[in-house]
Design brief:
The structure is a single chain. By secondary structure, the protein is mainly alpha-helical. Helix content is 39%, strand content 5%. The protein has seven helices and four strands. Strand 1 and strand 2 form a beta hairpin. The protein is flat, with a radius of gyration of 66 Å. The N and C termini lie far apart (147 Å).
């Protein structure tokens, strides 16, 4: 067995492991053709879209004159100059004569109005104290007022109208009650006999149908039908007995 003495080595544990796969090459970055053309052209042309960075000023000799400003160009008129004799301009009509207002003497008018005016009636008053306290008689209760009115002690008009309406309504009710037909009506002997014959005929038909029923009633519909026919037969027998026992029959509408 021999010994090997290693004095220098460059081994690293990280190099022993498998190396990662190399990264794939990157695709070239997209570049616009317009951008390339702008870069190749001159600098002033690159700014033509946005204008100058600093607006150059004109020299003082080139001052702004009339019609050189920024704005809409003057529109051309469609007017054509006609050379020759033009029709005369129509003259204005003469002004109408203003009607003179009649002169009114206000003093005379007021004097006439005062002469035609009726004197104001003196309102009756009452002095009830020695100090000369004046009180109006109207509304004071000293002189009877309401008992001297033309409508004093008479029924008011609205009550008169109301009473008239009530009387008309009562008259209509009375006439309707007099002309009202009776609710009950006495049937004569012929109608009574015809009613009795119809009841008996119905009883015979019902009795015939009842006798035709099967003897064995083993289902619910058969039982219900038989019970119903029995009830109708009993009711017909009661009606026949009622009509035969009462010669006078009244019918109510």
């Amino acid at each position: 067995m021999s010994l090997v003495e290693i004095t220098h080595h460059d081994e690293v544990i990280y190099r022993i492991l498998d190396k990662p796969p190399p990264e794939p090459p990157k695709t070239p970055r997209y570049e616009s053709k317009l951008e390339r053309e702008l870069k190749e052209t001159k600098i002033p042309q690159r700014r033509r879209t946005f204008g100058y960075a600093e607006t150059p000023l004109k020299p003082p000799e080139q001052f702004l004159k009339k019609g050189e400003g920024i704005g809409q160009p003057p529109k051309k008129s469609d007017h054509k100059c006609i050379i020759g004799n033009l029709p005369a301009v129509p003259r204005c009509p003469p002004p109408e004569k203003v009607k003179e207002k009649p002169k009114i003497n206000i003093r005379v008018r007021n004097m006439k109005a005062v002469l035609k005016a009726k004197p104001r009636p003196v309102e009756p008053r009452l002095v009830d104290t020695r100090d000369g306290h004046i009180k109006k008689i109207k509304g004071s209760g000293e002189v009877p007022e309401y008992c001297l009115r033309p409508d004093f002690g008479q029924m008011p008009e609205y009550l008169v109208k109301r009473n008239r309406k009530i009387q008309k309504r009562l008259e209509k009710m009375r006439l309707a009650e007099e002309n009202k037909e009776s609710l009950c009506k006495l049937i004569n002997e012929q109608e009574r006999q015809k009613l009795l014959d119809d009841l008996k005929q119905n009883w015979q038909l019902m009795q015939k149908a009842f006798l035709q029923l099967p003897m064995l009633t083993d289902t619910v519909p058969k039982i219900v039908r038989k019970t119903k026919m029995e009830q109708e037969l009993r009711q017909l027998e009661k009606d026949i007995a009622l009509v035969e026992s009462n010669p006078y029959i009244y019918i109510y509408e």
